[in-house]
Specification:
Helix content is 49%, strand content 16%. It is of the alpha/beta class. It has a single domain, classed as Collagenase (Catalytic Domain). The longest helix is centred in the C-terminal third of the chain and has 23 residues. The protein starts with a strand and ends with a helix. Its cofactor is Zn(2+). Keywords: Cytoplasm, Endonuclease, Hydrolase, Metal-binding, Nuclease, Ribosome biogenesis, rRNA processing, Zinc. Belongs to the endoribonuclease YbeY family.
Length: 154
């Protein structure tokens, strides 16, 4: 998979871990190896501009997803077609605040948000209770699977 990450924020992050998580999530969702994903980390000002422009909501948010080719999850028998999955925009400053509230690390929050963004790019939503249950269940399973894989890394 082609995954690009660009940290335009002032906060250093473990880009390698975010890349590994994104690859794990895409593999778990049976996304074609030739799919392309871009992840951009921005500061609060840039995120607020995007949030207002695309969601018509004030203030910075934690993650925004911009799908391109509207790819959907594949199956073990049939991957998604190759294509442009889209862009995920993360705001480490907002993630840091949320992580402190949740009692875990900023990296853990960024991994959660990256997974959340990947699922949005694949067409998942959480506007309705049944959608939320499905999406958050898949999100949890991906994060647990990734944590288990990370523990096995040398």
């Amino acid at each position: 998979m082609s995954i690009e990450i660009n940290n335009e924020s002032a906060i250093p992050v473990d880009e390698a871990a975010i890349l590994r998580l994104a690859a794990f999530a895409l593999d778990t969702m049976h996304v074609h190896a030739d799919a392309e994903l871009a992840i951009v980390l921005v500061d609060e000002g840039a995120m607020e501009q995007l949030h207002v422009q695309w969601m018509d909501e004030p203030g910075p948010t934690d993650v925004l997803s911009f799908p391109m080719d509207e790819l959907r999850p594949g199956t073990e028998e049939q991957e998604t077609p190759p294509g442009l999955l889209g862009d995920i925009v993360l705001c480490p400053q907002v993630a840091k605040e949320q992580a402190e509230t949740a009692g875990h690390s900023t990296l853990d929050e960024l991994l959660l948000l990256t997974t959340h963004g990947v699922l949005h790019l694949l067409g998942f939503d959480h506007a309705e209770p049944d959608e939320e249950k499905e999406m958050f269940g898949i999100q949890r399973d991906i994060l647990i699977g990734f944590a288990m894989q990370e523990r096995q890394r040398p």
